[in-house]
Design a protein that fits this description.
Layout (H helix, E strand, L loop, with lengths): L1 H6 L4 E5 L4 H11 L13 E6 L4 H9 L1 H4 L13 H5 L9 E4 L3 H15 L3 E5 L4 H9 L5 E4 H11 L5 H37 L1
Parallel strand pairs: 1-2, 3-4, 4-5
């Protein structure tokens, strides 16, 4: 998605509502340095880092990023960054993309970014969260959902950058096939034992 957005000349602000987010972002950045090649920090992209506070933090960021966070993930004054000077409030963003493993974060951004400021949302979520998040799209509170690992793999193929998503699908498909084989074998064993028991009676 970062490749796609940069190809579209979008400028990006990264922020994490969870403590693992900054670590994951740095792993992504260091293992995919070409994504940020030719992009100037502070103008083309900014990494705010982890912001504690849950929904209160989401509300604060929507109202004013520079008023909520003093320095970015690298110790730079947030208010001095050119990109933040242009996009400091939710209504100044063309799109907010939320990747999360918990439904709470989705509610934060629907209530604090979409409802008061009408900032369009895209949600990237776990497969099991799909049914819980679908009503956001039906109600017009989210533009679209990216559900599960398969959506990530499909996105990689569509933007011409196959990666760990595509690779992980091979592992997932193989494990599902093995599970199906065991289910079939288990049923065969169950019915064979049951039929032998009925014959003895």
């Amino acid at each position: 998605m970062i490749k796609h957005l940069f190809d579209k000349k979008c400028r990006l602000v990264f922020v994490s509502m969870g403590t693992t987010g900054p670590v994951m972002f740095e792993i992504l950045r260091k293992t995919n340095p070409d994504l940020f090649a030719g992009k100037e920090y502070g103008k083309d992209w900014v990494n705010i880092g982890y912001v504690a506070g849950g929904e209160s933090a989401a509300a604060g960021l929507a109202k004013t990023i520079s008023g909520t966070v003093a320095v970015d993930a690298y110790g730079n004054p947030v208010a001095a960054l050119p990109l933040i000077k242009e996009a400091d409030r939710a209504e100044q963003f063309a799109l907010a993309i939320v990747f999360t493993t918990g439904t709470d974060t989705l509610y934060y951004f629907v209530r604090q970014w979409y409802t008061p400021y009408k900032t369009p949302l895209i949600m990237g979520i776990l497969g099991v969260m799909g049914p819980a998040a679908e009503p956001f799209v039906a109600a017009g509170q989210a533009v679209e959902l990216m559900v599960g690992q398969v959506a990530g793999a499909e996105y990689e193929v569509l933007v011409g950058r196959p990666g760990i998503g595509v690779g992980a699908m091979d592992a997932q498909s193989t494990s599902h096939a093995i599970i199906l084989i065991f289910i079939i074998l288990g049923n065969i064993m169950f019915w064979s034992v049951r039929l032998r028991g009925e014959e003895k009676r």
